[in-house]
Design brief:
Structural class: alpha/beta
Helix content: 25-40%
Number of strands: 10
Order of helices and strands: EEHEHEHEHEHEEHEE
CATH topology of the largest domain: Rossmann fold
Number of helices: 6
Strand content: 25-35%
Bound molecules: 5-O-phosphono-beta-D-ribofuranosylamine
CATH architecture of the largest domain: 3-Layer(aba) Sandwich
Largest sheet: 7 strands, mixed
Strand order of the largest sheet: 4-3-2-5-6-7-8
Shape: globular
Length: 214
Amino acid sequence: MAEETFISPKKRGRIAVFLSGRGSNFRAIHDAILTGRINADIALVFSNVEDAPGLQTARERGLETLYLNPKLYPNREEYDKEAVKEARKRAIDLICLAGYMRILTPYFCREFRHRIMNIHPALLPSFPGLHVQKKAIDWGVRYSGATVHFVAEEVDMGPIILQAVVPVLQDDTEETLSARILKEEHKIYPEAVRLFFEGRLEVRGRRVFIREND
Ligand code: GRF
């Protein structure tokens, strides 16, 4: 079978950010939009957590927000169907998961194939899952970092867009390593989104190629 190719669209894009917590990556992406680095608008900030601090920030910044209560849906797929519907209503081009603490159903991943990004605080494919900064320290790795990747059905395993590396120091705690990694997250996530809407991300199989600017 021929390898599937995807090229990101060159346009002024419409982004939905999905978050469950403090939303510092959301802020980094929004800041890059405000300074003109990213050619896009955030058309929706979505959450599964009613009092997520990131939602509050979004309101303060005058962005549209939406909270859907997971308890009101019979299963994860029904919940995701509603989320997809809301995204479609707003003609969303790219969904940025930014600390969204729910695993997307295969249905959601298929509906927005190559149009969902995630940021992960480790060098994938090492340390998928949760509490990965602590896992990196406990394992004794000398380097860790952050990964921006497209979301595929297998959690944390979609095509890698950008990575940043940081050293793991001998006296690191989960907090100090997380802070060092977070700084890098705030650089590479906006950068990946910028490349996306410059039409420069080409996905071939599981590899992502960054095209020259034309
Ligand atoms: C970040 O560490 C990110 O890598 C992970 O969740 C955390 C979200 O932080 N997916 P924030 O809400 O963006 O501040």
